[in-house]
Design a protein that fits this description.
679 residues, alpha/beta, 7-stranded parallel β-sheet, 25 helices, globular, binds adenosine-5'-diphosphate, binds magnesium ion
Length: 679
C-alpha cells in the first residue's frame, strides 16, 4: 500500500525519517536546503602539479590495490595518471566491494584534499567516480549539503534535483524586486544549488552573493510578516481600556523619594497610553541593570488598579518576587492598595488564602514567580500582568500568559539589552520602550581582570572594603554540568572565606536554600548584618543593596557576557566607589578571552549585547528557551541590517495591501511550522 507522501516523488519511510532530521518535510524544504559549500570538480589536475593541502581532482588508473595492516587495517590504492604521476589513495573504512571495484587498469576520478604522505602525496577518503578521459566533466560546481548519518551527498543531491524539477514561482512581484534591487528567486536558488563553473566562489562562500541576499531577504520578510500579522491580530482583539485616572499613579510619583528620570517618564507615558487602548498592550520595557524599571512597572499596575482592575507582578525567582513585594507593598499600602504574594515557601493554607483573596478581588496586586501564577488560581479581574526579566522566561511563556483567562495588558521587562536588530526581528510583535539613562548619582563601576593566581590580593581588598563599612559579593563559579557540584563549590567557598576572613561576617546564598532561608539571608545582607555575601549566580537578577560596592566573580571566564553584565550591575548602586573584580583561570580559550575583553572595556549594556551577538549569534543570545522561534538560517543580523529594514517596511505594506502575497510568502518559508492565521 502506498502512503501519502508530502514529496512529489517516491520517498521511503526510512528516508523520510532521515530527511525529517534535517527539517525536510516536503519538496519546498528541499528546494531551500542550500549547500554549505561547493567543490570544484569541473577541472582535472595533473598529479605532478598537486600541492599538499590543496583540494583537487585527478583522473587516474588503478595500478594496484591491497589491504594493508600497518599501522591499522586499511585499503591502499596506487593510481597513475596519463602524464605518469603516481598518487596514493587510502581508505580507513571500506567494504570488500571496494577492493573489487579498484581493479588494476580501471579509471576513476578522485577528488579531495592532497596530503604529503609518508611515501609521497596521497589522498585519504577522497570522493571518487568511475570515469575515463572521455567522461564529460561537470560544468557546475558540486554542492555539499548539510546532511545526517546514513544520507550521502549523492543521495541528497539527487533528491534536491528532483525537487528542483518544478518551477519556483517568485513570491515577490517584479516591480518590488526592481525597487529593492533584489535578484529573482528562481535563478537565485538554482544558482546556489548548481553554481556555474565561473561563479565567484568567494562571494558565494562569504554569502555576499546577490543570490544569498535574495534568500536572506525572503527569510527576514517571512519573519516580519508573521510577527506583524500576530500584532495585527492582537490589535483586533478587544480588551477593556484602562485610561489614566491620575489618582493612584500621581500619588505614587509624588511619594517617591526621587524624581523620575526623563527616560522613565517617557517609558511610563508610552505604557500609560497603551493601557488606555481597547486592545491588549504587549510592550517590552528595556533598560540596563539599575535603570529603574520597577517603578515604571508599579505605575502600570496602579493605572489598572485605579480602574478597579487587578495587577500581577511576576518575577523569575522567588528572591526577586519577594524583593519586589517587600519594596512595594508598604508604599502601596499607604495609598490603599492591597498587595499580596504567593510563594512556594508559604504554607499551603497561607497560599490558598492568598489565592482566595486574588480570586475574590480582595487583593489588588499580587507578586509571585511565573510558575506560581501558572499553576495557581485565577484573578477576578486581571488588568495588567508585569513580567520582570522577560529574557528568563522565553517566548513560549509569552504565549502561555496571553492565553490565561481574559486577556490582560502585558508589560515585559528585560535588563538584557536586546540589540536593535534583534529587537526589530525576533521581537517585532512587541512594542518597545527603552530606558536609556541611569538615575543620577551612580558611580561608574571599575572592572578589574585578575588572574586567579592573585586571589590573595583580592582577599586583602575585600577585607579592607568591608572593614571600612562597605559590603561585598563573592560570586561562585557557574558549574553548568552539575547543580550538586555547584552547591558544593558554594559551600566550600563559603567555608574557606569564613576561615580566611575571620573578622568579617560571611553569609551564603544559593539556589538550593529554601525560599524562606534565602530570604532570611538576603534580609540580613540588606540590613548589613552580613559583610560578605558568598553567592551562586542566583543574585544575577534584580538584587538591590546599594551599600555593596565590591563584587568578586570567580571563574569569570566561564560566564557569558550577558550574565557578567547583569552581575556587575549589582554594584555601583550607591555613592561608594564601586569595583567588580573578575578572577579568571588560565589558559583562556579564544572565546573567553574575547568576552573578558568586552566586559573589561565596555559598560554600556547595549554595546555589550551587540558584541555578544557578534561573538555568539542570535540563537544563544536569545537563550535556549527561545528556541520556539524559527531561527534565521540565511540572514545575518549584523551583515544584513539593510535587508532587515527593507523587509520590515515591505511587511507592513504587504500585509495591508497584498495579504495574498504575504500568505504565499510565509507559507513558502515557514510552511507547516507557522502560518499567518495561527498566532
Ligand atoms: P532595574 O531596572 O535594574 O530593575 P530597579 O528598578 O531595581 O532597576 O532600580 C534600581 C534602584 O534605583 C532602586 O533602588 C530604585 O529605587 C532606584 N531608582 C529608580 N528610579 C530612580 C530615580 N529616578 N532616581 C533615583 N533612584 C532611582
Ligand atoms: Mg529589576
Amino acid at each position: 500500500m502506498k502512503t501519502a507522501s508530502p514529496f512529489s516523488f517516491p520517498v521511503s519511510p526510512a528516508l523520510a525519517a532521515k530527511l525529517a532530521k534535517l527539517g525536510l518535510a516536503r519538496d519546498a524544504d528541499l528546494v531551500l536546503h542550500l549547500p554549505l559549500r561547493w567543490e570544484d570538480e569541473t577541472r582535472i589536475t595533473l598529479i605532478r602539479d598537486l600541492l599538499p593541502a590543496q583540494t583537487a581532482q585527478v583522473q587516474a588508473t588503478v595500478r594496484d590495490a591491497k589491504v594493508a595492516y600497518r599501522p591499522r587495517r586499511m585499503l591502499t590504492v596506487t593510481v597513475e595518471d596519463a602524464a605518469g604521476g603516481v598518487l596514493g589513495i587510502r581508505f580507513l573504512h571500506f567494504y570488500p566491494s571496494h577492493l573489487k571495484l579498484f581493479q588494476p587498469g580501471e579509471s576513476f576520478r578522485f577528488s579531495g584534499e592532497v596530503r604529503g604522505g609518508f611515501l609521497g602525496l596521497e589522498m585519504v577518503h577522497p570522493r571518487f567516480v568511475k570515469a575515463d578521459d572521455d567522461t564529460p566533466l561537470p560544468t557546475q560546481l558540486t554542492p555539499v549539503y548539510p546532511t545526517t548519518a546514513g544520507l550521502s551527498q549523492a543521495a541528497l543531491r539527487k533528491l534536491v534535483t528532483h525537487a528542483l524539477a518544478a518551477p519556483i514561482p517568485d513570491t515577490l512581484p517584479a516591480e518590488w524586486r526592481a525597487e529593492l534591487g533584489l535578484a529573482e528567486l528562481e535563478s537565485s536558488i538554482r544558482l546556489l544549488h548548481q553554481p556555474p563553473q565561473a561563479s565567484a566562489l568567494a562571494e558565494l562562500e562569504s554569502r555576499h552573493h546577490p543570490a544569498w541576499r535574495r534568500l536572506a531577504f525572503d527569510e527576514l520578510l517571512a519573519q516580519q510578516l508573521s510577527l506583524a500579522s500576530a500584532r495585527r491580530q492582537r490589535n483586533a482583539r478587544p480588551t477593556l481600556p484602562l485610561p489614566p485616572r491620575q489618582r493612584l499613579t500621581a500619588a505614587f510619583i509624588h511619594a517617591l523619594p526621587f524624581e523620575l528620570t526623563a527616560a522613565q517618564e517617557r517609558a511610563w507615558q508610552e505604557i500609560s497610553r497603551d493601557l488606555a487602548q481597547s486592545h491588549p498592550m504587549r510592550r517590552l520595557l528595556q533598560g540596563d541593570v539599575g535603570s529603574g524599571k520597577t517603578v515604571v512597572a508599579a505605575l502600570a499596575c496602579l493605572q489598572a488598579i485605579e480602574n478597579s482592575f487587578q495587577a500581577a507582578f511576576m518575577a523569575p525567582t522567588e528572591i526577586l518576587a519577594e524583593q519586589h513585594y517587600r519594596k512595594l507593598a508598604q508604599p502601596l499600602a499607604a495609598l490603599g492598595v492591597r498587595c499580596t504574594w504567593v510563594s512556594g515557601s508559604q504554607r499551603k493554607a497561607e497560599r490558598q488564602a492568598a489565592w482566595q483573596a486574588i480570586a475574590a478581588g480582595e487583593a489588588d496586586l499580587a507578586f509571585g514567580t511565573h510558575a506560581l501564577f501558572q499553576e495557581g488560581g485565577s484573578f477576578q479581574r486581571l488588568g495588567v500582568a508585569v513580567v520582570d526579566e522577560q529574557h528568563r522566561f522565553g517566548v513560549g511563556q509569552r504565549l502561555a500568559l496571553m492565553q490565561k483567562g481574559t486577556e490582560p495588558h502585558q508589560l515585559m521587562m528585560s535588563a538584557t539589552p536586546i540589540p536593535r536588530t534583534l529587537a526589530m526581528s525576533f521581537f517585532a510583535d512587541l512594542d518597545v520602550s527603552v530606558i536609556d539613562e541611569l538615575p543620577p548619582g551612580r558611580t561608574p563601576v571599575v572592572t578589574k581582570l585578575v588572574s586567579a593566581a592573585r586571589r590573595d590580593d583580592v582577599l586583602v581588598r575585600v577585607r579592607e572594603a568591608c572593614l571600612a563599612g562597605g559590603q561585598a559579593y563573592w560570586v561562585c563559579p557557574l558549574i553548568e554540568e552539575s547543580e550538586k557540584l555547584q552547591l558544593q563549590t558554594a559551600q566550600d567557598t563559603w567555608a574557606v572565606l569564613t576561615e580566611q576572613l575571620p573578622d568579617l561576617r560571611v553569609g551564603l546564598v544559593h539556589g538550593r536554600l529554601k525560599p524562606d532561608e534565602k530570604q532570611a539571608v538576603m534580609a540580613a545582607f540588606q540590613a548589613h548584618e552580613i559583610d560578605l555575601l558568598v553567592a551562586t549566580t542566583v543574585i544575577e537578577v534584580g538584587v538591590d543593596v546599594p551599600n555593596a560596592a565590591l563584587m568578586v566573580i570567580e571563574h569569570a571566564e566561564r560566564m557569558g557576557l550577558a550574565q557578567l553584565h547583569q552581575l556587575r550591575g549589582r554594584v555601583g548602586r550607591g555613592s561608594r566607589e564601586s569595583a567588580c573584580v573578575l578572577l579568571f583561570e588560565t589558559p583562556l580559550s579564544e572565546l573567553a578571552r574575547a568576552r573578558l575583553k568586552v566586559i573589561f572595556e565596555l559598560s554600556d549594556g547595549f554595546e555589550i549585547a551587540r558584541q555578544d551577538l557578534l561573538l555568539r549569534g542570535p540563537g544563544e543570545l536569545l537563550g535556549h528557551r527561545q528556541s520556539g522561534l524559527p531561527m534565521l538560517r540565511f540572514a545575518d543580523l549584523e551583515r544584513d541590517v539593510d535587508l532587515l529594514e527593507a523587509a520590515r517596511n515591505l511587511a507592513q505594506r504587504c500585509l495591508a495591501q497584498h495579504p495574498e502575497i504575504a500568505a504565499r510568502h510565509v507559507e513558502r518559508w515557514l510552511g507547516s511550522r507557522q502560518s499567518l492565521s495561527a498566532t
